[in-house]
Amino acid sequence: MSKLQFQPRLHRAVMTTLLVAMGSLGAMGAWADAAADLPVETAELTAPPMVPAPIVRKTPAKVIVNLTTEEVIREITPGTKYMFWTFGGTVPGKMIRVRQGDTVELHLKNLPTSKVPHNIDLHAVSGPGGGAPQTLIAPGKDATFTFKALNPGLYVYHCATAPVAMHIANGMYGMILVEPEAGMAPVDKEYYVMQGDFYTPGAFGAGGLQPFDMQRSIDENASYILFNGASNSLTGKNALTANVGDKVRLYFGSGGPNVASNFHVIGAIFDKVYTEGGLKYQEQVQTTTVPPGGSTIVEFVPKVPGNLTLVDHALSRAFHKGAIGIMSVSGEEHPEIYSKAAAAKAEH
Predict the structure, then answer these.
(1) Three-state DSSP class for 128?
(2) 208-210 and 294-300: which strand pairing?
(3) Model confidence over 303-320: pLDDT tens digits?
(4) Residue of 7, 105, 117, 149 with fewest CB within 10 Å of its CB?
(5) Distances, alpha carbon 104 to alpha carbons 146, 150, 301, 335, in Å
(6) Global pTM?
(7) What is the CA radius of gyration of the chain?
C-alpha cells in the first residue's frame, strides 16, 4: 500500500476517533449539566440492625455517601476477639438507602490506622467493577466515584481488593437499598441483618485474639457463621423487638464469602419474600435461601408475644457456629392462635 493510498484512510480513522471522543465528551457534559441541577443531600448511613429512614421525596437527587474503611478488634463471641476489616466500623458495613434515579457520589476513605488497601464494589452499580477500580486506596487515602442508581432492589456491596475472599471474610460487606420510584409500602419495623462466615485457626469460642485462617477459608470450613458479625449481635440486650400485630420487614443479606444462608424465623411464616432482593415476591414462605453476595427482603406479622428465633436452618450453623438471633415480641396473648396453657396441660 502506498503512502498516498494509506493517508486518506488514516485521516478517516483519526477523524472517526475524534468524533467518537467528542461525542463521549458531549454526553459526559450533558450528564454533568443534568446532575448539577439536582438537589443535593447527604445519605443517612446506619449501623446494623438499624435501617435508614424511608425516602419521601418523589424526584431524583444527587446523594453524597461518605463511607470509611476501618480495621477494628472486637469480640466475635464472648471471650474471643478478632481483627475485623469493616465499612464504617461495623459488620456488616453501614446500610445505604437511595431512590431509583438518584445520582450517587460515593466518597470512600481508608483510615490512616488501616494496614492494607481497600476498595468497594457495589452490586447496585451498572459499570465495570462496580466502582472497585476507582476506589482502590492505600491507608490514609480517599477516592470518589459517581454512579446512577438505575435498578431498584436490595444489593450487596463488598471490598474487592485481592485476596477478595479474605477481605470479605474479615467483614467487608454491607447493603445498599435502591427504593423504587414509587417508594416502599410503609411498615412498623425495619431491620438490617447479614450473615457471614469467618475462618480462624481455633475452634468456635477458643478464646484470645484469633487471626484469619486462609486455608480454612479455601477449604470453606468456617469456624463461625454469624448474623451481624458476632454470636451475640442479636441476642440478649441486642435482641430485635416488635409488638404483636406489627408489620415487620427484614433486609437480609449473605456477605459470604462462601456459605449460602437458609434463612428462617422459628415461630413465624413470611407473608412475603422478595426473592433475590428484587421487586417480585413469593407468599407464605417458611425458609428462603440467600447465596453469598445475595439478598432478600422478608415481611411478616408476629401474631403472639414471645421470642421468635432467627436461624440459618442448616442448624449446626445456628447452634454450633453462631447463626442465631432473637426477636422479642410484646403484646397481648391470642390463645385462639397459640395457647401456652393448652400446651402445658397436654404435657401433664
Answers:
(1) helix
(2) unpaired
(3) 999 999 999 999 999 999
(4) 7
(5) 6, 11, 34, 50
(6) 0.90
(7) 24
